[in-house]
Amino acid sequence: MAGFGITDGLARGIEGVQASVSGLLFEPVLRIGVTGLSRAGKTVFITGLIANLLHRGRMPQLSAEREGRIELVHLQPQPDMTLPRFDFEGHLAALTGEVPRWPDSTRAISELRLSFRVKPAGFLAGWRGPQVIHLDIVDYPGEWLLDLSLMEKSYAEWSEETLSRINSRSQAVDFVAEARAVDGARKLDEAEAQVLAQAFTGYLHAAREAGFADCTPGRFLLPGDLAGSPVLTFAPLPQPATTARGSLWREMERRYEAYKSKVVTPFFRDHFAKLDRQVVLMDVLGALHQGPQAVADLRRVMAEVLGAFRVGRASWLTSLLGAHRVEKILFAATKADHLHHEQHPQLTAITEALLAEAKSRAAYAGAEVAAMSIASVRATVEERVEREGESLPAVRGRLLASGKQAVMYPGALPHDPLRVLNPAREGAAQWLDADFALMGFAPARMGLAPGQGLPHIRLDRAAEFLFGDRL
């Protein structure tokens, strides 16, 4: 009986390997992670991408579509039965309803599979039939992404960095005063720990509302079923001279380490580390509107977070064994429809400059990296406005707050990105020679012609970079 068990186990293992190899060779699977920071538009990006892959009339830059090689694209049940399905239909209904609205933001991990039937290109076209290729899109909250930067930091390092970084922020005044007044060497008082954790959570919510990107730990903002648990009941504290067992400091440290091991590590292992391609969405225009400190914050956070990617091209053997590496990373500045197309090159140049450090790190390890400006769903039309005898490039759309039509000229983005980066590096409180305005636009009412997806800006170019080579 024991021998049968071992043989049966080996047989199942061989079958599993054969199935994996067969899938990779004959129906390859590409896993794309969609991530970004709060309000960058992850849900809208995925919805717009899927809608335009199912109905490809607006995708001329996707080479397989332009060459007429895509025979069919359809939705499939996702392979991971334990993950929620990305609610594409519900989000599409929100965008295309009688009164269009933006769908709710990502609050948990979800997944969706698109399957392509594609005719081969080149010399294979004459003797090989169409191939099935699966595209698994994994959506997860940007707040969880930031947690990956905690994996190599001790509680003492994280506390010191956090308190130093937020010390001058108005949103953190009350919490920082409370934290610095605490003696971490005292014996743990659970009520005191709860008060500190609640004050820190309040700061994180206020900082996110103010446009700061470094709002971590992410589960403090999206606790889910962890609400009230010890892994969400800690806060950064100044390190006391002594940290005896049973002290407030030691218990905060223990809970911080539990957060890393019980929350962050499983997410990294089970989902993040299995991605082949990655989209990093950034609200660069929002940061410009908030000012130099928000731009500096965005630049620093993205450089730190991208260190968690296992970048570089995987060999064919490691791919067969499931050891994925991120081969391509797209840095996408969203909401390009808030600008006239004349200013899109400046937005792309600023995005590239913001990510120069992180981009060079990823490229050095072998990943192919690109930056572009996109609008996943276009909400505006372009116009020109006259101001003091000058014709200025503007956009018009339906205001999110009132539903009324409005024309916006956001200001001129500089052609030289250093005019943005230098004040950010120097810690300037505001832009000295410019003011970048931003309005919140609601989705436009749209009538879609047969075969056409949602209107967008450069979503087809983004798709071509991310997976055009696999089609």
Automatic annotation (TrEMBL):
The record ties this protein, via InterPro entries, to:
YcjX-like
Specify the superkingdom: Bacteria
From the Swiss-Prot or TrEMBL record, give the protein name: YcjX family protein
Q: What is the lineage of its organism?
A: Bacteria, Pseudomonadati, Pseudomonadota, Alphaproteobacteria, Rhodobacterales
